[in-house]
Design brief:
about 190 residues; alpha+beta; 6-stranded antiparallel beta barrel; 3-stranded antiparallel β-sheet; about 45% strand; globular
């Protein structure tokens, strides 16, 4: 097999191009296949996804305490409008000496190509995502929690790349683990 083997399914029509890895150890996908996988990942979210607002931390322009490495003044980029697959936020009520609180755990999946198309940084720990900006959730709450209005805000607590093509370095999306707690609501962070 040559280094630039072209596979043709129809005479005169090039279906896909494969390039050999160094030392002939397998095949590497070309741009055509990556675009195909990206379009499939995006299409699912565009058809059945949930509208989200993505607030990314502006770590370059935020001021940080030199000793404790904690943010003094936090700056944000966004909100960026995206579509994502969002899992239902399960609530966990807790009664403690300090009082009652409710935690909500959820996850969302964002297509990498949507992030690339907007030219923004990928999601990372500490970012904020808002979803369910609907009349129901703007007026009422989950499990009798007062609604913050304008949807629910969640902290991004973990991000994993997902959808690796053929177990290679190319991937098509991000799984974001989300957390919302009633006593430290994420909308307070972006309002600072």
């Amino acid at each position: 097999m040559s280094n630039n083997c072209k596979i043709k399914f129809f005479p005169g029509k090039e279906a896909c191009t494969f390039r050999a890895w160094p030392a002939g150890k397998g095949l590497q996908m070309g741009d055509t296949e990556q675009k195909l996988h990206d379009s499939i990942a995006q299409e699912v979210n565009q058809i059945a996804g949930t509208d989200i607002d993505f607030y990314a931390q502006d770590t370059d322009n935020s001021s940080v305490d030199p000793l404790f490495r904690e943010p003094i003044e936090r700056l944000w980029k966004g909100p960026f409008k995206l579509k994502a697959f969002v899992e239902w936020a399960d609530s966990t009520p807790e009664v403690r000496e300090e009082g009652f609180r409710t935690s909500f755990a959820s996850r969302c999946w964002i297509a990498r190509a949507d992030i690339d198309a907007l030219g923004i940084q990928p999601p990372s720990e500490g970012d904020v995502i808002r979803f369910w900006n609907t009349p129901f959730f703007n007026e009422s709450g989950l499990d009798n929690e007062p609604s913050p209005g304008k949807g629910y805000f969640f902290n991004v607590t973990d991000v994993d790349d997902d959808g690796h093509i053929n177990d290679g370095p190319l991937f098509v999306g991000f799984w974001c683990t989300l957390q919302r707690r009633t006593e430290f609501s994420p909308e307070r962070r972006i309002a600072e």
